[in-house]
Amino acid sequence: MDIFYKPDSSHQIRMTPKQRxxxxxxSFKERLKTARKLRGLTQDELASKSELSSVTLSxxxxxxxxxxxxxLVAIASALEVSPNFLLGWADDFSESSSGRTGWFKLMQxxxxxxxxxxxxxxxxxxxxK
Length: 129
Hints:
The chain is mainly alpha-helical. The protein has helices at 17-38, 43-49, 54-62, 69-79, 83-87, 103-111, 115-128, and strands at 3-5, 12-14.
């Protein structure tokens, strides 16, 4: 079937498999960076945790390289997120849907903030728990 549903849109878009792959590749670099920042990890820390080189991780975040299956699984495991999230096929971090809408857009907004602001938000969330 050549119809692919994009979670951030309200309608279906006709895309070829090649177009879906390109869309997923672009989404991957953004989602990887967002998830890493929200986990409070530097590139070096995530590289170590996922047993990859910092250069490899940097190339993935900038879109120079695309992940192999093994690399995708290693990164998802290290970040404790679903590979589907990293590929742009799901907006939830985890495998199970939490029913929360707009979660990825919120995460993107937070990831664009300064590191100090992110730390303040993290502290606030810790106090709320």
